[in-house]
Write a structure and sequence with these properties.
The protein is of the alpha/beta class. It folds into 2 domains: 271 residues, UDP-N-acetylmuramoyl-L-alanine:D-glutamate ligase, CATH 3.40.1190; 140 residues, Protein-Tyrosine Phosphatase, Chain A, CATH 3.90.190. Helix content is 40%, strand content 18%. The chain is built from 14 helices and 16 strands. Helix 2 packs parallel to helix 8, helix 2 packs across helix 9 and helix 3 packs across helix 4. Its EC number is 6.3.2.17. Belongs to the folylpolyglutamate synthase family. It catalyses: (6S)-5,6,7,8-tetrahydrofolyl-(gamma-L-Glu)(n) + L-glutamate + ATP = (6S)-5,6,7,8-tetrahydrofolyl-(gamma-L-Glu)(n+1) + ADP + phosphate + H(+).
């Protein structure tokens, strides 16, 4: 196998999409072997993608799912009907792509890790003859590797906010314009409720220029809910459909993602061949759904919840969910960010959590992590409390477990969540092994 190595980041290095299109053509256009539901946004796109994939699987479709950043193992980024690509399959397709990049046709070109993973996913989904692929954008839109695909059936936009400033643009207008370029001629474009009317306007204008149909989630579907233990009872209504089902995600922000999924499903259902009702699809798909790394309970006693909120809008939603669901409980929160994030305003928001104390840690990414001392100082400037710094994520969560006894939360970079989540789940697996 060629010893070609992939770069860590090439997003802004020349015309990446033209290169990826050339490679896809050389590989036989695997992206044209299935229908694509393309999901783009700042927050909620991973959860939305996973819910859509679950609904399609319930309708007896063979569904590929490509998500990032990965939770746990890199193979989890590429799944078919909930099963990750195997390490051997990933290695084989990685070798194929590396060998091709070493040929004279591509000798002067270079791929990033994410671009290579995207190409591998397209090959894998084609080889496995999937019916649909739910394709989550990386950090961008127009220049994102996933935008190299030829056609899409849906472009779905979750909430768009200020993130990756300087890469995608410096204003909400510039960032939205970049993301809107995923829209394909004649497809169906779905827009989640937005904080800014500017976002809606820019996406609508791009869709109109491409002859794409636009559905505004905020106007299309209305949702009410009531809590029942660890689930929500959802009542939804559109002009043509109404129904009730159980929903397994309690974080407040998942209700907005759910509205987007409902809008997509009701539109898709009208041409789908399935004996199931919409309510049956929703109940079977979403009543027990678990979204890794998104307000996910990874341990019951003490309760440990991890959430990959790493930008300001995500942090605000996390804070609201904690205060809504666990207002009166004392809690210890392990927190760590990458240094290119808006951590000052995020700390201001986190200080709104009631009955909380913090342990400051560092994400497992040496080149991008925000130092514990810097985050500690930021917390001190806001709260006048000097919270402890425990740099190793595993040591930090163990200290939290001793300190709280009832509720621990982990929030911030996925590079912080991943080692903690893997560690806690390995402890759980060891317990199961000893008792079975």
């Amino acid at each position: 196998m060629a010893d070609t190595k992939f770069a860590s980041f090439l997003y802004d290095q020349g015309d990446r999409i033209a290169l990826l299109k050339r490679i896809l053509t050389k590989l036989g256009n695997p992206d044209q072997d299935f229908s694509i539901i393309h999901v783009c946004g700042t927050n909620g796109k991973g959860s939305t993608s996973m819910m859509i994939a679950a609904c399609l699987e319930t309708m007896d479709q063979k569904v590929g799912l490509f998500t990032s950043p990965f939770i746990g193992d890199q193979t989890n980024s590429i799944q078919i009907n909930g099963h990750s690509i195997s390490q051997s399959q990933l290695a084989g397709l990685t070798g194929l792509v590396k060998n091709m990049m070493a040929t004279p046709q591509f000798a002067d070109d270079e791929l990033s890790d994410f671009e290579a993973l995207f190409l591998i996913a397209m090959l894998y989904f084609s080889n496995q003859s999937v019916d649909y692929v739910v394709l989550e954008c990386g950090l961008g839109g127009e220049l994102d590797a996933t935008n190299a695909v030829t056609t899409t059936q849906y472009s779905i936009f979750t909430e768009i906010g200020l993130d990756h400033v300087g890469i995608l643009g410096s204003t909400i207008e510039e960032i939205t314009t970049t993301k809107s370029k995923i829209i394909r001629p004649g497809n169906t474009t779905i827009i989640a409720p937005q904080h800014s009317d500017t976002v809606n306007r820019i996406i609508r204008e791009e869709a109109r220029s491409k002859g794409a149909k636009v559905i505004d989630v905020g106007r299309f579907v209305h949702v009410k809910y009531q809590k029942l233990n660890s689930q929500l009872i959802i009542n939804y209504q559109t002009t043509e459909f109404a129904g009730t089902f159980k929903f397994g995600l309690i974080a407040d922000y998942q209700l907005e993602n759910l509205r987007t999924v409902l809008t997509w499903l009701i539109n898709f259902y009208q041409s789908a061949k399935t004996p199931l009702t919409i309510d049956e699809i929703l109940e079977r798909s979403l009543s027990q759904i678990n979204i890794p790394g998104r307000f996910e309970t990874i341990n019951e006693s003490p309760m440990i919840i991890v959430d990959g909120a790493h930008n300001l809008d995500g942090i605000k939603s996390f804070v609201d969910s904690v205060n809504t669901n666990f207002e009166s409980l004392k809690k210890v929160i392990v927190v760590g960010f990458l240094k290119d994030k808006d951590y000052q305003d995020s700390v201001d928001q986190l200080s709104r959590i009631k009955h909380a104390t913090f342990i400051i840690s560092e994400p497992a990414n040496d080149s991008r992590k925000l130092s514990g001392e810097q985050l500690q100082q930021t917390f001190y400037n806001t709260t006048h409390i000097k919270y402890p710094v425990i740099k190793d994520p595993i040591d930090a969560i163990n200290a939290a477990k001793i300190q709280s006894g009832s509720l621990d939360l982990v929030v911030g970079s996925f590079y912080l969540l991943n080692p903690i989540r893997t560690y806690i789940k390995s402890l759980e697996d060891n317990i199961h092994d000893k008792t079975s």
